[in-house]
Amino acid sequence: MPRVTHPSSPGLFPEGDSPRSRIAYETRRTTQKAAQAANRRRAVPRWQQFLGRRATVIVPLALVGGLVLWGWASGKLAAAGNAVDAAFLDVTARGGLQVQEVLVKGRKETDGAQVLAALGVERGSPILGFDPHAARKQLEQIPWIASARIERRLPDTLFVVLTERQPMAIWQHEQKLALVDAEGTVLTDHNLDHFPNLPILVGDGAPKQGRALLAALASEPTIQSRVDAAVLVGARRWDLHLKGGLEVRLPEMNFEAAVHQLAALEASDKILERDVVAIDLRVPDRLVVQSSPAALAAKAAAKAADKKRQAAAKKN
Predict the structure, then answer these.
(1) pLDDT digits (tens, 9 = 90+) for 209-252
(2) Domain 96-164 has CATH 3.10.20.310
(3) Which residue numbers delimit the POTRA domain (predicted)?
(4) Which of 19, 21, 59, 220 is the most exposed place for a label (fewest CB within 10 A)?
(5) Residue 97 DSSP one-character state
(6) Alpha-carbon distance 182 to 73, whole Å?
(7) How much is the pTM?
(8) Pair type for strands 167-173 and 176-181
(9) Residue 110: which of 79, 77, 148, 73 has the closest Cα?
């Protein structure tokens, strides 16, 4: 009859049947099994191990991504999204979130109908469907409006704050008149009689170059009040046309100093009240005055009369 060896026999534990030998034997067996398992894992490439572990996540995501891509390419996804958005906005509007009032602050010259057209909203429209950013861009396309700010004040009000451009002058160009601001933006060519005190700028490019000239004139009110128009000559320099027909020719460079010089001459000699037709300030430190024909004739007559008096005095 075969004989069965007890686990504690030396056949199973070559080192002997002692607690220390059994522990050593179990430790070696555990280490061998771990090494065998590691060798089996190393036999499989790492990318296959990664895919094996991630397959349960990657496969569903790939399916969902494919469905989304197909829906986007076919347009059905966008249509479904639009339908959901429309249904949502309809529910909010029926719940009271709809435009009932538009409040506008800062509007003086801008036409109200233009503002409403730029906002593109009607009474009863879903207020959550209103796009403030797109409406702001449309408002700033209106010439009078420099900037705009729009707020949705739930549940039913749009609040609009406008900053309008400031008119600087009337621009005469190609026999037409238009209102312009300091940046040269054309504001309007209607109702110009509402701005009777604005100076007139004449010539190509006059609005953009006129800002510095008008600033220089503003620093000398006695000259500014007499100016009817400023003509840009050759896109380089200005001629001032004063009330009464007097023309003042300013230099190309440092015309501000010439304006101050003219104001000083008016204060000391009342030059603008004399019978002259032109004052030339184009040459620094030099003043050229052109008298009117009447003044020249009067001067010639005075000289002739003086000569007669001298001749009569010699005879006597």
Answers:
(1) 999 999 999 999 999 999 999 999 999 999 999 988 899 999 99
(2) yes
(3) 97-165
(4) 19
(5) -
(6) 50
(7) 0.63
(8) antiparallel
(9) 148
